[in-house]
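Researcher: Please predict.
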Amino acid sequence: MLSYQNEYCDITLREGIEEYRKYLKANNRHVLGENCTEDEKFNILCHDATHVIFGLDTSLEEEAMLDCWIFFGGDYFKVTMEYFKGSLDIKETNEKVFALVKEVGYLKYTYLYLRVMFQKWPKIFFRTRKMKKWSYFFPSDFLEKKISDLRKEFNIKILSPEERKIKKVIWQRAIS
């Protein structure tokens, strides 16, 4: 378990993102942003921060859980509008997702999201009702705040390792 996956971790958001990226590299997972523009790098930083603040890794299941946290507990509609305006269209991310959908198959990929939705979304949904909305495009001073303080400020109660488990794993591959 990574330190940011502890509810009361005592590291800064910046340190959590660094730990998250080191974890990806150590596990031969692709770290987004190495060949991006500055705007794209900021968008990736924001996405990586959501993994850290909500205590999730990059398995398909936990990516689906992250979508749920962002949808119900964040400014999903603002993020969606930015995507449709083209400012969140990161070619590298799109290529990874499309390659994964092609490899896994559209039906299996959709099935995974539906399974996660029915197993995990209710728990996440009720937790987001108690929290202050997390801004995907967060202020830069958040990087120097402790993750535990940010979670307390936003009333974020992350899923424990047991709560993150999926009853039956469908696909082991990670998307990032």
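Model: Residues 106-129 form the longest helix (24 residues).
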